[in-house]
Amino acid sequence: MLEAGNLSRPVLRRQLRQARRNLSPLQQKQAARALYRQLAQHPLFRRARDIALYLPNDGEIDPRPLLHAAQSRGKAVYLPVLSRWPRTRMRFQRLQLHDRLAANRFRIAEPLSNPKRQRRTWTLDLILLPLVGFDEHGGRLGMGGGFYDRQLAYRQLRKNWHKPTLLGLAHECQKVDRLELASWDVRLQAVVTDGGWYG
Ligand SMILES: Nc1nc2c(c(=O)[nH]1)N(C=O)[C@@H](CNc1ccc(C(=O)N[C@@H](CCC(=O)O)C(=O)O)cc1)CN2
Ligand SMILES: Nc1ncnc2c1ncn2[C@@H]1O[C@H](COP(=O)(O)OP(=O)(O)OP(=O)(O)O)[C@@H](O)[C@H]1O
């Protein structure tokens, strides 16, 4: 496990992104299957009707087996879509079965923006968040855009928001001993990896 100790956020990000990109296609496939087994039968996933997740990029663990399971169980699946303006905003948009996807400005695939299918964050049941690094206390280090933090900032106003449930998804190699959290960083309920649950 990486000792985050006195590494700066940019250095930590670079090392952790490199580690996940170094995984082979076979390792990625096995990790995606293991993640699916950790989560598919869990009550948090089974009970959720509206679930946000992401399309994998830059070596991220692949949640698509969960996406397909959710769709075949009749759940609604949402993906992050970056707003054209303001550029710091992201929305969660419902994915339709035969949606066309296009690369956003970070070259991540996303559906074409359609405000009618976008949902307010607090009406979702479960958000499966991508991350670059995590610790066992719900700490999350993201790509550095602050998109998820901004979208979830409303939670800081009240201590007992319970919806949606926030679960980070990651490879085991993204675990660090401890992350310094900034004031705007939103804590995750838990992180699920190919190896187990943390937090
Ligand atoms: N799969 C996935 N989708 C996601 C996220 C994510 O982390 N993973 N995001 C979570 O927030 C949002 C995109 N956030 C991002 C934030 C910063 C960079 C970034 O710095 N990328 C480049 C450098 C900038 C550039 O190319 O212009 C890089 O790869 O270094 C990428 C994505 C929305 N969609
Ligand atoms: N609630 C917020 N309101 C305004 N700005 C914010 C908020 N949350 C984060 N930011 C801004 O976003 C920038 C990036 O934050 P941070 O490095 O924590 O992103 P991240 O969590 O790694 O990224 P992401 O959530 O996109 O994966 C910070 O410089 C911060 O100023």
TrEMBL record:
<feature type="binding site">
    <location>
        <position position="55"/>
    </location>
    <ligand>
        <name>substrate</name>
    </ligand>
</feature>
<protein>
    <recommendedName>
        <fullName>5-formyltetrahydrofolate cyclo-ligase</fullName>
        <ecNumber>6.3.3.2</ecNumber>
    </recommendedName>
</protein>
<keyword id="KW-0436">Ligase</keyword>
<dbReference type="GO" id="GO:0009396">
    <property type="term" value="P:folic acid-containing compound biosynthetic process"/>
</dbReference>
<dbReference type="GO" id="GO:0035999">
    <property type="term" value="P:tetrahydrofolate interconversion"/>
</dbReference>
<dbReference type="InterPro" id="IPR024185">
    <property type="entry name" value="FTHF_cligase-like_sf"/>
</dbReference>
<keyword id="KW-0479">Metal-binding</keyword>
<dbReference type="GO" id="GO:0005524">
    <property type="term" value="F:ATP binding"/>
</dbReference>
<keyword id="KW-0067">ATP-binding</keyword>
<dbReference type="GO" id="GO:0030272">
    <property type="term" value="F:5-formyltetrahydrofolate cyclo-ligase activity"/>
</dbReference>
<dbReference type="InterPro" id="IPR037171">
    <property type="entry name" value="NagB/RpiA_transferase-like"/>
</dbReference>
<feature type="binding site">
    <location>
        <begin position="140"/>
        <end position="148"/>
    </location>
    <ligand>
        <name>ATP</name>
    </ligand>
</feature>
<dbReference type="InterPro" id="IPR002698">
    <property type="entry name" value="FTHF_cligase"/>
</dbReference>
<dbReference type="Pfam" id="PF01812">
    <property type="entry name" value="5-FTHF_cyc-lig"/>
</dbReference>
<dbReference type="GO" id="GO:0046872">
    <property type="term" value="F:metal ion binding"/>
</dbReference>
<comment type="similarity">
    <text>Belongs to the 5-formyltetrahydrofolate cyclo-ligase family.</text>
</comment>
<keyword id="KW-0460">Magnesium</keyword>
<feature type="binding site">
    <location>
        <position position="60"/>
    </location>
    <ligand>
        <name>substrate</name>
    </ligand>
</feature>
<keyword id="KW-0547">Nucleotide-binding</keyword>
